[in-house]
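Q: I'm writing up a methods section and want to include an example of the input and output format. Could you take the sequence below and give the corresponding predicted C-alpha cells, formatted cleanly so I can copy it straight into the document?
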Amino acid sequence: MFNDRSSLLAHLSTRRSGKARDMIAPGPDAGELRDIIALALRTPDHGKLAPWRIVTVAADQRAALATLLKTAWVEENPGAAGLDLSALDQFAHQAPTLLVLLSTPMAESKIPVWEQQMSAGAVGMNLLHAAHAHGFVGSWLTGWAAYSPAVAAAFGAGDHDTIVGYFFIGTAARDLDERPRPEYYAVVHAWEI
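A: Here is the clean output for your methods example:
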C-alpha cells in the first residue's frame, strides 16, 4: 500500500475526519470494504480475544435504522412522541457506507476489560486509516445512539457490550477542514524523577 516511508508519513499527516453529513457516493464497493475491515482487524489484541464486532448496515437497511433510532429515542425519552425526530432520520441516512463497531469484552478472561476496550478503540482508528488509504473519508460518531441500550441490543450487544461508534465512509463533497490539534508540549511531558 505504501511504497516508501514518505508515503506512509504523508498518509498519517493528511488523515482527518470528514463530516458524515457531507459525504457523497461513491463509498467503498464490497471488495474495498472487505479490505478496509481486514486492515482494521490488524490491531493490538492482548490475548488474541478479538473483543470487538463490526456490523455492516446496508443502504437498503437505513430506513430500518432510522425507525430503530426513533423508536428507542421515544422509549427512552418520555414525552418525545410527536416531536420532530428528523435529526435521527438524517443520522441514519448519512454517507454511502455505515459500519457499527461494538466492544465485546470477555469479562472471564485474564486480560483486563480496559485493555479489551482499548483494542476495540484501536480497531476504530484503523478503520479510519484504512478508509483514508483507500481514498475515502471516514467519520467516527457516537452521541446518544452509541449509548442507548435498546440500539446496542439491536446490533447484537450483550450485557457487557457497548457501541464504540458509528463509522461513516464515503467521498468528501468538499475539501476537508483541518481542525486545531493540541500543542505538542501541552500534552507531551518528560518524566521527572
